[in-house]
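User: Structure please.
Assistant: Input sequence and predicted structure:
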Amino acid sequence: MGLRIKRFKLVFYYIISEMVPTFFVGVISFVSILLLFQVLKLTDTLLQHDVSFRTLVHLLSYLSISFLPAILPMSLIFAIVLSYNRLSGDSEIIAFKSLGLSMWPIIAPGLTLGLVIAVVSGYTSFKVGPWGNRQFEVLITDIGNSKIISRIGEGTFSGFFNLVVYANKINEDTEELESVFIYDERDESSPTTIISEKGKIVSEKSFNSYKAFVRLINGDIHKMSDEGHTKIHFQTYDLQIVEPTNKKTRNKSINSLTYDDLIHLRKTTKDPKELRNFQYEWHKRFALSFACLLFVMVGIGLGCRTNNRSGKSGGGVISVGVIVVYWILFIIGNSLLKSPAVPVWFAAWLPSIILLPAGLALLKKNWN
């Protein structure tokens, strides 16, 4: 019995030591790939607003954190398949069996790592990932608002924040405008037209908030309402462009909602469509965490084949194939959400429902 336990520990630590470095290589690789695509999408914004290197590092850090809920399961299948594929390709699994070991000591390290990553993935899905996504949203909003002048074209009508702005001349260094025309339709019941000789973009930023406004000089305000037309002349008038954004209370996107946020919204939301989206997000995050265990079963089943000679390159192709299949099923489930007849839980758990029997069958086949 003591010799068997010793062999179990040796095999366990040997396989774990094979998988863990590969897992972190997968995390770095997948994060780098996703960041590359995001940077390409953000290139215009970054160049237009002359983003500093420090701000760029913050953006990429927040993006990396927001990717973790999806990256962890993908990196796990990458590590599982490559590790067991190498063991199988080098006939080490046959060697383990020749020592009298069953498949349990060989499979246990993968299941253990999968369970640990599933727990970590659940925490990142409901806490860490939403925090990173929210910080990214706030920072990218601040970047977009910090240089309003870049959104205004000289001699052209520019629209943003429900405003239409025209300036005959623009000094981008001093952020001063000449011959300014502004149409403000933020209040739909009473749209306002402002004409002034000059204007200047003024921004104020603190640690927790940001706001920007145009200081207009010598002009007229024309306001239309049901009661008629009102004209007001001014010498100096501050038109607020960006509402103060408080980082603690700004509206969150659905990807920035934490565990507590989703619980609260599921209880208080009255709109059926919005409620359905919140419920789907809730189930989707749990399903993504469960995908870690699902990937372990599928990964061990595909990688732990005693007749396998495909090597690491074959393992990489297999892991990518499993990820592609999972995300295709995920997209299908997301599409099914649009149909009220489809239960929310079914749409969110569709990949797991389809792949779980395959994973169990593969695991059972290798166990025998």
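Helices lie at 2-48, 53-89, 92-98, 104-146, 259-268, 272-303, 311-336, 344-367.
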